[in-house]
């Protein structure tokens, strides 16, 4: 079933030889996406923080697809220095970039510092800004941001971005907030990039059995582990909508939209709030010490 659906997807696309960057491509959904793109002949850069796992994933994909153009480059999205170093090395090495898939995901926070906000939003935001000119010079090109239906429970307090929220379900809330930021980021990116040939999409992959839930509290694990294993999608199934948005022809009119199950879906009300999207963008730039954007703000 899965192969058939993917087959349909591939038949209707024209995939050029592309360079694809996939933060978080060493496991789960990211690895499954990278494998399918490599199978179609793409040049793929897996970008993740654990060098051993990254190299192993790249080796597995080369072995499974016969495509030698699958590389690993180190990237830790929780460190701005690492994001800058990755971007500099990438830009020096790769003349083209047609697809940036912001897929890395973190659910766990540390004291007083929101790791989900840093990794899931801010690190990806910085990476996208640093690679934007290369995406533009390679246009048509796409940015995909792997969000989640969990964005619906997100509540962004703009004055406290980056601080973990209070309350008994702080970790879950923190993750949902970062996923709302993903939806708003894709929306604002698309608006600012209108007419450049670069389009942006947010994607919910479904509930997928991956390492993402490794920090599930011990007391919940007897329920969660079998639920995840037997009821959730496989990583290959979770990759479907990401691959659809990466490769389907004719998606330009949907730039900025949120996709699930290979079709655009209305995000929650806060996820459609353009003023919030603009404020998040401007505050993210300030937090990162970036000059106001190269791309035009939208009125
Ligand atoms: N699994 C699900 O049910 C589900 C549901 C909705 C959305 N998502 C989203 O899908 C994406 C992929 O998650 P997954 O389920 O494949 O989980 P996963 O844990 O298998 O993959 C996450 C990847 O992110 C990488 N990563 C984490 N922190 C990083 C950092 N600091 N720097 C660089 N890379 C880092 C990890 O190395 C890993 O490769 C995430 O954005 C997640 O929020 C997952």
From TrEMBL:
InterPro entries: NAD(P)-bd_dom_sf (IPR036291), SDR_fam (IPR002347). GO terms for molecular function: oxidoreductase activity. CDD domains: retinol-DH_like_SDR_c_like. Keywords: Oxidoreductase. Pfam families: adh_short (PF00106). Belongs to the short-chain dehydrogenases/reductases (SDR) family. This is Dehydrogenase/reductase 13.
């Amino acid at each position: 079933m899965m192969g058939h659906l993917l087959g349909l997807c591939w038949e209707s696309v024209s995939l050029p030889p592309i360079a694809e960057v996939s933060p978080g491509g060493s496991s789960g959904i990211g690895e499954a996406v990278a494998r399918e793109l490599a199978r179609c002949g793409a040049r793929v850069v897996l970008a993740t923080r654990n060098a051993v796992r990254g190299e192993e994933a790249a080796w597995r994909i080369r072995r499974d697809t016969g495509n030698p153009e699958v590389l690993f480059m180190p990237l830790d999205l929780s460190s701005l220095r690492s994001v800058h170093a990755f971007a500099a090395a990438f830009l020096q090495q790769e003349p083209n970039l047609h697809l940036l898939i912001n897929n890395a995901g973190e659910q766990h926070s540390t004291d007083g510092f929101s790791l989900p906000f840093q990794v899931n939003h801010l690190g990806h935001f910085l990476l996208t800004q640093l690679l934007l000119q290369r995406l533009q010079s390679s246009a048509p090109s796409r940015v995909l941001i792997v969000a989640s239906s969990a964005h619906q429970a997100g509540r962004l307090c703009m004055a406290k971005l980056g601080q973990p929220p209070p309350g008994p379900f702080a970790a879950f809330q923190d993750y949902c907030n970062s996923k709302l930021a993903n939806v708003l980021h894709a929306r604002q990116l698309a608006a600012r990039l209108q007419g450049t040939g670069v389009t942006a999409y947010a994607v919910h992959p479904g509930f997928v059995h991956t390492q993402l839930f490794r920090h599930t509290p011990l007391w919940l694990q007897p329920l969660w582990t079998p639920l995840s294993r037997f009821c959730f999608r496989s990583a290959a199934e979770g990759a479907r909508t990401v691959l659809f948005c990466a490769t389907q022809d004719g998606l330009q009119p949907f730039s900025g939209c949120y996709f699930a199950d290979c079709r655009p879906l209305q995000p929650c009300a806060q996820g459609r709030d353009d003023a919030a999207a603009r404020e998040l963008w401007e505050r993210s730039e300030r937090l990162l010490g970036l000059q106001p954007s190269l791309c035009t703000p939208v009125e």
